[in-house]
């Protein structure tokens, strides 16, 4: 019996539309469980999901979308009137004052904005008037763009109007708030304020604030006076002098002044940093005595960061370690007198350090790191520019079973160190080898020989002169699921590396599917031919791209137009945001394609022909 003619077979029925297959209430319930990013991706599938997603946006309690950079025109329809909205987190790099009314919403309990350099101090005034119940406020680079206004009156309005603040982080230049009343205005700050982080604050303003706080404590019992920061548990202060502070102790932080920062011993997190952004300088009037006295009231500290304390020696740093049994995070920057002795008897303590940063501690050697490695719970270790460290230090670290991030920039390690890591047990997710000039191409197969090949997501191979395209070929063949790859200032890296990365597949997914950041700034072999490999659909997840500014500007601008969500840097600036360990949650959206967001946000939703026919 002959087979039936396929032409005579009736055509299969089109699949039912989404709204016919599932009640709208069920779809809305499902969508309400998604994060914002997944919700927007779902809305690009069909009209039904788009309608349900739009409805869900009107009752979401939290809107967190800090992985994408949106303009006001794109953001406004995503933030409809929503009385239930309590938490808002965004990257505001493309927002300006036109978005202030969209950001300052009644009922907000948390507002976190990164890169808000295009927004003026008006935001602080609007928050004071609109958000009296605000609990958490974190702003980065507010009003940094030239010509934008921000004054002391904006800060005063914020402190007066937002009386429920518990966490205040203003990573900005506090010299814009310079006013005779600056130190007194903090008396109106929320009594429940437990975390305070200030950006660059001139030391004179800080000393004046400390003096007023001390005076208020001394007057209690005699005259009714406001108490400054009674609930404070986290304090972060940074100054960045443009000239060497005067030798007079009245104009700089001293041993005595240091004792006034934590007089009641309530602080759990303390960060005191003298930045060397403009000039090499330090806290010259603070020595071991000041640290020893401060450590007597620091038994509650869980994290401490000290930067620029050039006169503090092992004695002072050991006092901190031995006085803080609950210390988990330790950071020392420019510890010019810190040596291996700091960790000599760390085994005898009850410390359980998880995060350690010892940048520019040039006297630290392999012996000290071997002692430090007895902390088997180490999760993050930063040893940038510890120029006396070599392969034996890495050998000790390779046995740490929880080490997720390791920074070895500027050390004198060789390929042997990479062999230790490749054969070790560290579940490394982030590794930085910038400026390790003794490394060669052979270090890559040694590093990827073991389990690191599966866990590594961020890799920095910048400023390694002998690195060539062959090393990148090894990474591609190993199919390491990198999301960040930095190769800046490598003279032998060229177009072949770009082509190989664009063709890379991971678990059979689309080409270049895992890379979100690629830094090729000042790579000597990159030419205009590489530009074609950045066109869609290649590198579908790429959000940060660094290139040399001398490339053809017309082609660069054309790339920006075709990929509006790609942040392109041609001036040598660092890309992306600092690594944040999320304990294995790197691939939260393993199967999505980020570019699917763009058609819905820019041109409307893509709808298949079959669904269109069915709905009609």
CATH class of the domain at 457-576: Alpha Beta
Average pLDDT works out at 85
CATH superfamily of the domain at 457-576: Ribonuclease Inhibitor
Overall shape: it is: globular
Q: Output the structural class.
A: alpha/beta
Rg measurement, Å: 27 Å
Largest sheet: 19 strands, parallel
Number of helices: 23
Taking the alpha carbons of the first and last residues, their distance comes to 41 Å
β-strand number: 19
CATH topology of the domain at 457-576: Leucine-rich repeat, LRR (right-handed beta-alpha superhelix)
Q: Which spans have pLDDT < 50 for at least 5 consecutive residues?
A: 221-225, 578-616
CATH-level-2 architecture of the domain at 457-576: Alpha-Beta Horseshoe
Q: Outline of this structure?
A:
It comes from Triticum aestivum (Wheat). Residues 582-591 have a biased composition (Basic and acidic residues). With 616 residues, this protein is an alpha/beta fold.
């Amino acid at each position: 019996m002959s087979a039936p003619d396929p032409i005579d077979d009736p055509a299969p029925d089109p699949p039912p539309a989404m709204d016919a297959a599932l009640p709208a209430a069920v779809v809305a319930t499902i969508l309400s469980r998604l994060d914002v990013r997944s919700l927007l991706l779902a809305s690009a599938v069909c009209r039904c999901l788009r309608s349900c997603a739009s409805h869900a946006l009107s009752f979401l309690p939290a809107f967190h979308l800090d992985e994408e950079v949106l303009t006001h025109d794109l953001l406004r329809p995503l933030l409809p009137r929503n009385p239930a909205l309590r938490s808002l987190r965004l990257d505001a790099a493309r927002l300006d004052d036109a978005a202030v009314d969209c950001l300052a919403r009644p009922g907000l309990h948390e507002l976190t904005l990164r890169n808000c350099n295009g927004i003026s101090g008006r935001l602080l005034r609007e928050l004071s008037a609109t958000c009296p119940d605000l609990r958490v406020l974190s702003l980065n680079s507010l009003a940094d763009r030239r010509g934008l206004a921000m004054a002391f009156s904006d800060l005063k309005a914020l402190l007066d109007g937002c009386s429920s603040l518990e966490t205040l982080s203003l990573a900005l230049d506090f010299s814009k708030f310079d006013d005779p009343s600056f130190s007194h205005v903090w008396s109106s700050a929320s009594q429940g304020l437990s975390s305070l982080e200030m950006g660059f604050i001139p030391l004179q303003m800080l000393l004046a604030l400390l003096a007023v706080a001390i005076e208020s404590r001394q007057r209690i019992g005699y005259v009714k006076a406001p108490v400054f920061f009674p609930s404070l548990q986290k304090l972060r202060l940074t100054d960045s002098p443009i000239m060497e502070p005067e030798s007079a102790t009245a104009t700089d932080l001293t041993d005595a002044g240091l004792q006034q920062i934590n007089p009641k011993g309530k602080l759990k997190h303390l960060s005191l940093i003298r930045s060397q952004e403009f000039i090499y300088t330090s806290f010259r009037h603070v020595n071991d005595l000041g640290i020893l006295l401060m450590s007597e009231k620091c038994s509650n500290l869980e994290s401490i960061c000290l930067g620029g304390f050039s006169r503090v020696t092992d004695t002072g740093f050991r006092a901190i370690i031995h006085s803080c049994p609950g210390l988990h995070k330790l950071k020392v920057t420019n510890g010019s007198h810190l040596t291996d002795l700091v960790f000599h008897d760390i085994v005898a303590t009850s410390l359980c350090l998880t995060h350690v940063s010892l940048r520019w501690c040039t006297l630290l050697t392999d012996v000290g790191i071997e002692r430090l490695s007895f902390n088997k719970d180490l999760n993050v270790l930063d040893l940038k520019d510890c120029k006396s460290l070599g392969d034996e230090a890495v050998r000790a670290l390779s046995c740490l079973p929880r080490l997720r991030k390791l920074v070895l920039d500027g050390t004198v390690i060789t390929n042997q160190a990479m062999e230790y890591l490749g054969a070790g047990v560290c579940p490394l997710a982030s590794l930085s080898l910038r400026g390790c000039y003794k490394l060669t191409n052979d270090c890559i197969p040694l590093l990827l020989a073991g389990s690191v090949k599966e866990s590594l997501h961020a890799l920095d191979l910048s400023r390694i002169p002998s690195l060539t395209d062959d090393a990148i070929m090894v990474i591609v063949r190993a199919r390491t699921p990198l999301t960040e790859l930095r190769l800046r200032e490598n003279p032998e890296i060229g177009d072949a590396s770009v082509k190989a990365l664009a063709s890379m597949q991971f678990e059979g997914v689309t080409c270049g599917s895992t890379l979100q950041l690629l830094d090729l700034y000042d790579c000597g072999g990159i030419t205009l031919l590489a530009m074609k490999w950045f066109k869609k659909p290649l590198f579908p997840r790429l959000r940060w791209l660094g290139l040399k500014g001398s490339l053809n500007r017309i082609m660069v601008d054309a790339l920006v137009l075709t990929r509006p969500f790609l942040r392109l840097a041609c001036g040598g600036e660092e890309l992306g945001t600092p690594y944040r360990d999320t304990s294995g949650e790197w691939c939260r959206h393993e199967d999505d394609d980020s570019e699917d967001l763009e058609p819905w946000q820019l041109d409307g939703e893509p709808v298949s022909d079959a669904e269109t026919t069915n709905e009609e």
